[in-house]
Amino acid sequence: MIDHTRQVTVVGFLRGLRIAILTVAVTILFGLTLPNLVARIDAPPGPAVQVACFLLLMAVAAADVVLVLRDRSWGRLRWPVLVLLLAVYLGFTLLLPADSVFTVDNWYFNSIGWFGVALLFDQPLLSFVGFLAGCVAVSVLPILVSGPGNGNDVVGLAITIVSIGGFQTLTATAAGALRQVAFSAALVSASAERTRTRRAVAQRVHLDRQSRYRDIATTAGPVLSGLADGSLDPGDPEVVRKCAIEAARMRRLFAENKDTGDKLSHELRACVDIAERRGVAVDLISQGNWRDLPREIRRALTDGPMQVLSTLSRNSRTARVTLIGTRDTVSVSVLADSDAPVPRLAETAGVRTTSIFDGERVWVEATWREAGWSQR
Amino acid sequence: MAGGRMVTAVILDDHPAIVAGVGAWCVTADPPIGLIDADGQISRLWTEPGGSADVVVFDLQLGGSPPLFRELERLAAAGRRVVVYSQRTDGATARQCIELGAFTYLTKAEGQHHLVPAIHAAAQDTPYTPPTLSGAFYADDAPDRPTLSVSERETLRAWFESDSKRLAAGKLRLSVKTVETYIERVRIKYANVGRPARTKSALLERAIQDGLIDPGDLVPR
């Protein structure tokens, strides 16, 4: 997530920067170079070479447009392209008369630097300085070859380096600074995001704990405080029954917070576990499929069965627990040896609970039907 | 077919303890059932003495092998009455076995109460639907499932949940006989949509004789 945030922020920052550099390069290419080229098309190194060089720069500019639009860097491809630009420039200057190298005839030099900035936007400043030094060296080459003509050459060289190279270097430096800012911004943003997530999780956990506490405070609280202050007799069968139900409720509450695929089965299993601890052989059988039901419905479905399973008498030997579901109906049923009927349960959350007692066995069935349900 | 003489069954199961247990139930059954052990080998279901047994008690999975659906289909196609006796409890497997022509489907957990009655019922070509199969019919959500009435569905569920026709009848305020009729009728409906097999025709024939269904109700698929 951090890497993702960093990437998004950095790309956002650098995209603007790249568009700016590209705009400068293209403006110079078409606004400055093209009129010069058209006006002096016959000047050395000749129309064919001039047009070919212009088309090369246009092609590189077009490729950069595509990359900027796709938020992609030049990557390793930049190096051969830079070498190509330099090599072409070398040919261009060698075809120029030595005294034209620092005149308007050498339009190639005016543009090439900006392409260096564009191609090296995400590289250390040193790479651009190196490229620029290469361009200057190529410019100086004809003078070295044919010897210094006059003082104008040296003056021209100095002016060109300061006016063109200086400006380009400045831009490249600014790009580097902006890149640093973008990275820091990405780090800060990722850190803020982490803090936000941590806070949201902590809040959620706190709310969950409060809600769980509320759930048992009203029912388990009085039983526990009654046992503590002696107002409830642990030997009283009714108190024992209440304790068993509360223990089952807590067990189900813990089961509710497990992140399992089938929550209803999982919670029902927690209820079955209670009966098995009391030595009752429980058959748990399920059939069909059911969707992920909300907690209120799951509770209403397991409430009746839970009461039966947690209060089975010592004489109970077996219990049959079933869970059956279709798209719109889910039923939980418990049939167990019992010597007492189960209190009636009110209909809640769309769940109807029925109970039958035939003197030996008690059968409790809780059925949820989707609102608007109709028989198939 | 089995009238007058002892009902015989051949059992295919790879667990000797299961075979011994089923053998004990068969000896004490009323009337007793003659059980032949196929010794975990499918071929012995086809060769004597297993080949002429009235009923085949068929474990769907031997060892770690995949379910033997093709073997089941071949047995059903040859007119054998197959009681599938499996540890698999999922509804899809149970329904597939019925579709392939099994006489009935029993889970191992149901064996003690339902295997002997199921063998007797199979020998007489009367339907037998144990609770798990009943639940599998109730929970069937296949598009081509047979159409069941509200009472039939409620009865299937009550029988699945209680494993007691008396309790199911009490809950639904029906007679035990009516509960039995509803469950049998569902089994006939499934036989009617299943593959053509002797099991199917025998069940349908018997159901018409008993007045359980009207021949006009049988709409071929």
From TrEMBL, chain A:
The keyword Transmembrane helix belongs to this UniProt entry's keyword annotation: yes
Alphabetically ordered keywords of this record: Membrane, Transmembrane, Transmembrane helix
Transmembrane annotation, as ranges: 12-35, 47-69, 81-104, 124-145, 157-178
Protein name: Uncharacterized protein
From TrEMBL, chain B:
InterPro entries hit by this protein: CheY-like_superfamily, Sig_transdc_resp-reg_C-effctor, Sig_transdc_resp-reg_receiver, WalR-like, WH-like_DNA-bd_sf
Keyword Transcription regulation part of the UniProt annotation: yes
SUPFAM superfamilies the record matches: C-terminal effector domain of the bipartite response regulators, CheY-like
A Pfam family of this chain: Response_reg
Key word DNA repair present: no
Domain called Response regulatory: residue spans: 10-119
Keyword terms, alphabetized: DNA-binding, Transcription, Transcription regulation
Name listed for the protein in its UniProt record: Response regulator transcription factor
